[in-house]
């Protein structure tokens, strides 16, 4: 089987939502996809702005039936870009002064990711309802059980 890397430049004007990822993997490609370089308008200020000035270094791994398994991003380490992004998004800079101090007093390039454990189990087992794979089920009023 020949693997093909598909590269699609998608310029979207609507915010990306879970349903969009499900549509891409379920209807368009019918296989897992990696969505990356999101428009900076729809992502948090701390994500690193790419050289094009319009996108950020972020990604999601989305698979059919289970949704987003992994998401991650590179964090912005450039003080001037952090300040610019905070202003662009209309965030009160005083609320994030502690975050700016972390960067101001020394930082390195860094990234992070998260794995949606339940969705990985859902994908691996082929089950269809995420409620069936939650290791510690909870229900309203029964959170302590």
TrEMBL record:
Record's keyword annotation contains Aminoacyl-tRNA synthetase: yes
GO annotation, biological process: tRNA aminoacylation for protein translation
Gene Ontology molecular function terms on file: aminoacyl-tRNA ligase activity; ATP binding
Pfam families recorded: tRNA-synt_2
Keyword Transit peptide found: no
Protein name per its UniProtKB record: Aminoacyl-tRNA synthetase class II (D/K/N) domain-containing protein
Taxonomic placement: Eukaryota, Viridiplantae, Streptophyta, Embryophyta, Tracheophyta
InterPro entries the record matches: Aa-tRNA-synt_II (IPR004364), aa-tRNA-synth_II/BPL/LPL (IPR045864)
Residues in Aminoacyl-tRNA synthetase class II (D/K/N) domain copies: 30-138
Superkingdom, taxonomy of origin: Eukaryota
Assigned keywords, A-Z: Aminoacyl-tRNA synthetase, ATP-binding, Ligase, Nucleotide-binding, Protein biosynthesis
Leader sequence segment: none
